[in-house]
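Morning, I've got a small favour to ask if you have a moment. It would help a lot if you went through both lines with me. I owe you a coffee for this, so here goes:
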Amino acid sequence: MAHFYNDPAGGKPSTVGVQMRDFYYAKDAITEVAKEQYFTQLASTTDMPKHFGQRIKRYIYVPLLDERNKNDQGIDATGVVIANGNLYGSSKDVGKISGKMPVLSESGGRVNRVGFVRKTLEGTFQNYGYFMDYSEDSLNFDTDEQLMQHINREMLKGANEISEALIQLDLLNNAGITKYAGKAQSAAQINKTSLVTFQDLVNLTTDLDNNRTPKDTKINTGSTKIDTRTINAARLMYIGSEMKNTLRKMTDFFNNPAFVGVQHYADGTKPLRGEIGSIDEFRIIVVPEMMKWEGAGAAATADDGIHVTGGKADVFPMLVVGSESFTTIGFQSDAKSVKFKIIHKKPGPEMATPADPYGKMGFMSIQWWYGFMVIRPERIALIKTAALV
């Protein structure tokens, strides 16, 4: 009688007897590619030295011609005290400005006195970290002889991803400009009619211009954040993947497509990481890990043609971050700036304790300090909108 291999793995043994092995082990493990970072590269970092607590403060001086420059020092050209101490603030009104100029007469006199104010910015930082433990047997008997190398890599990747998420959260929560699409006045009112329009983006550009938000965006390109790349004459707008359909269907004031894909860019224009195109003065960057507010809008159904969770519209952010609008806060330990502190203790005699008298367990931990300080909130803008399916 002939011998048959049959299907040992499926429960049908070979006729010759038990098979010692019914699979081939490919030693090259499959690992996920590290998620790209979009917001970390926008951040400058301020390191806190030891022995100064966990708060950092910084002065910002308000310009002379700014509504925020309210003081008790102002005297106008006629010698009369100015109510708020300011010449004409941020006004653009011809009538108001014309009568507020610091004109001097032939005799001079105690006129045109101005005052200045400064504000104090404050940021805090906090310790983050996690650990994993493992047994000596897992090192000795696990099929993958590179087990610890893989775990080391995933521990570090995870910390980088959490840091990126922390920055995104802080940017979303500290925007100085927040607008809502359609007629919505809050996120809870967003429904199928609350879709961002070309007019919304034009209005946002006006607000950012009035706030003197630079159109040159600095991006850190080096791993040590020393190398920078400046994107000239552009404001970057960050969106989630779900927003692509909405933007590609947007039309301008002449009912023409407002979206220009990167494939139509002029020669010499190099697309940025994640860039899919531009609308008006914004270059659109798709962030796969962009957050959203699930089910935070008004009542909606799948028939409305928008993204819905739990019977309510999902709310999506469109985030613009101007240069020098924020800084992250790190911790300078022993005159060294180290982002991540990794501790790895392998099983062995030195690990023996009353709780583990044989030293059979080891562990690895990673920790870091992170903080956020808004410098110019008026340069961080956010549109909240529904998104077409």
User: Anything to note?
Assistant: The mean pLDDT is 90.
